[in-house]
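Subgroup meeting minutes
Present: P.N., E.W., G.H.
Scribe: E.W.

1. P.N. recapped why we're keeping a running log of single-chain structure predictions: easier to compare across weeks, and new members can see raw inputs and outputs side by side.
2. G.H. added today's entry (124 aa).
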Amino acid sequence: MASGPSQDVSMATPPPVPSEEPKLGGFTRFEIELEFVQSLASPLYLNHLASLKFLENPAFIEYLAYLQYWAQPPYTKYLTYPGPTLKNLELLQQEKFRADILSPDVTTRLMEEGAKAAAEWPAS
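Output recorded in log:
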């Protein structure tokens, strides 16, 4: 994560795996981040974020980089759909993908790839 005077120290490290951490609006930081990162599995949601220009916002891009901690073993077990969630989180690290996901064709292709993977799983 880039350093700078506006950096939020509370986001410098991932939240602890479910614990007695303080609640924000009735939810822990862990629960809020889990719900958000899982929403990234949806190509339609990614397209929506792009249409609202979130994927052009440097602070939001930093937040997406921070969320990569979900790829680590203590956290992956909490993901309902780890394959598409982590794949899309990784794709969002690329500037070209953040621009391309605005295209309905790219969004449709990702949806079709996801449907195909789901239909073929588990293979063999």
